Amino acid sequence: MEPDPIDEAWARVVERWDDDEQHKLFVGLCFSLSRLPEAGRRYREVRERDPARREDAARRIDKLLTFASKTLDATKEPPPDMKRARRILFVVALVLFCALILSSAFVLLHIQ
Q1: How many domains in the chain?
Q2: Are 47 and 57 a contacting pair, CB within 8 Å?
Q3: Range of the structural domain that residue 85 is part of
Q4: Which residues contact residue 61 at a Cβ distance below 8 angstroms, ignoring those fewer than 6 apart?
Q5: Furthest-apart CA pair in the chain: how many Å?
Q6: What are the C-alpha distances in Å from 5 to residues 1, 9, 65?
Q7: Judgement on whether residues 68 and 93 belong to the same structural domain of the protein
């Protein structure tokens, strides 16, 4: 079984904790593998278990949450154009109404 790249990147982060580049690479890797929550979990563990790194881990969690929030905002689909949707609905309703009136008139004219 191949080693987990997240585990390897995290080991480098722990080994070189003061190296911001290692943290960026780790978070970027987690993001690219759609495993961003795992990055948060690992930083929370450090915050809870390592008093010497507690404040730095908390700061990195805040950065991670900001990054996740911005990423989520960037991937949101824009709201649908409601004016266009209403216009289409109106046209469909109008066509159906006209078809109903015409078919009713046709039936009434053929009954007599």
Answers
A1: 2
A2: yes
A3: 81-112
A4: 40, 43, 44, 47
A5: 96
A6: 12, 6, 22
A7: no
11 pLDDT above the threshold of 80 = yes
Residue 78 confidence (pLDDT): 66
- Give the separation between CA 50 and CA 109, rounded to whole angstroms: 89
Model confidence over 31-80: pLDDT tens digits? Answer: 999 999 999 999 999 999 999 999 999 999 999 999 988 887 766 776 67
Same domain, yes or no, for 29 and 65? yes
Q: What mean pLDDT is predicted for residues 17-22? A: 96
CA atoms within 13 A on the CB side of 56: 13
